[in-house]
Amino acid sequence: MSGIYLHIPFCKQACHYCDFHFSTRLKHLEPVLGAMHQELRDRSGEVQGEVATIYFGGGTPSLLKADQIGAFISAIRKQYTVKDNAEITLEANPDDLDESRIQAWKQVGINRLSLGIQSFEEEELRWMNRAHNQQQAHSALALMAQHFDNYSIDLIYGIPGSSPEQWEATLNTALGYNPPHISAYALTVEENTALEHMIQTGKSPDVSDTRAEDDFKILMQRLDEARYQHYEISNFARDGYYSKNNSSYWLGKPYLGIGPSAHSYDGRTRRWNVRNNIKYTRALDQGESYFETETLTDRDRYNEAVMTGLRTQWGVSYHRIREEIGPKYENYLKMQAESYIRKGWLFEDEERLFTARAAKFLADGIASDLFMLNLE
Ligand code: SF4
Fold it and tell me: Which GO terms describe its cellular component (predicted)?
């Protein structure tokens, strides 16, 4: 089974921290969507088996009209075999939600929404340069909860200048709506973003790892008390509401990425499309190349399995490493993990290696210590 990801590379305005690929020049929207349809047609032979998830990400897919979203879903249904109960998610921003759009999205086949709330604090939303305000965050969430059973909200923690009490208040506000799924990400400073510039020029305090770790502890504790399952470092869900799309990535399933900057994976090869709307559109139009590929070595596949596995509740499967990559990788993993198991940061059963609750914030760093660097 596979997933299809559609990257809609447009936003109304640039959030200060964002390094995703997007443009605010909406006049290029129609040509880019046309080129994406072309890419979908060209690549229909690449998907083996049924499509289990369709995900509209970005950028801001909720900028699209419902019939533009519907046209993609119809095209995928026509050109690919889509599973009966496929999960079809639309990322949406609060300022794009109203009753009629929500109804129209449902009618064209969207059955899951992921809402980019990020914060309920007016000051924080302004600091991030989000396009929505506090009141829109509340009204969009209330509307979404009324119309969708399956939805998620995104939140950001570790915001400079905010306090742990503010973060806890944000979580409590979110929990008041009883969302079935919550994604919460530590704010990071990416290269060439407005945030990096603001910090370098003294217009903003720097982000703090200690502060992020404190917020992460609050996050784990509050969502544990509220009985959410912490199934991936940044993701929490009620039973039955895990994101099927994201879970497939973490479990190493293949996916097709359509649109500028979108990545694809077929189990052996990674491919990424050019991160430029005009180059992407022109190349599709003129039949030129618009992507690069990389065939993963066994070592790459081992490192990825360790990195993603230690972030999830499913852990790293010794069986998968042994059967799909090779016994020497399983032995190496067990040897490297020993000292962390002794410290209580990792634990194992017969078939899997897991990150202990107390070490979850450190999972990425631990994983990189278990990577295989030069042994091939
Ligand atoms: S809306 Fe999303 S993709 Fe667009 S700038 Fe903000 S964070 Fe980035």
Answer: cytoplasm
Q: Provide the residue ranges of all domains of the chain, joining segments of one domain with +.
A: 2-249, 298-370
What pLDDT does residue 374 have? 65
The Cβ of residue 58 has, within 10 Å, a number of other Cβ atoms equal to: 24
The residues with which 59 forms a beta bridge, in sequence order, are none
Residue 349 class from Cβ within 10 Å (0-12 exposed, 13-18 middle, 19+ buried)? exposed
The CATH topology of domain 2-249 is TIM Barrel (3.20.20)
Residue that the structure tokens 């046309």 belong to: 34
Report the pLDDT value the prediction gives residue 262, as an integer from 0 to 100.
98
Average pLDDT taken over every residue of the chain: 96
Region 106-135 average pLDDT: 96
CATH number of 298-370, picked from 1.10.10, 1.25.40, 1.10.287, 3.30.450: 1.10.10
Angstrom CA distances, 155 to 120, 121, 221, stand at: 9, 11, 16
- Cβ 2 vs Cβ 50: under 8 Å: yes
Task: Please give the Cα distance from 235 to 241 (Å, whole number).
Answer: 11
Whether the predicted pLDDT of 375 surpasses 60: no
CA 91–ligand 1 middle distance (angstroms): 11
Averaged pLDDT for residues 275-282: 98
Q: Are strands 235-237 and 181-186 parallel, antiparallel or unpaired?
A: antiparallel
CB-ligand 1 contact for 59 (6 Å cutoff) = yes
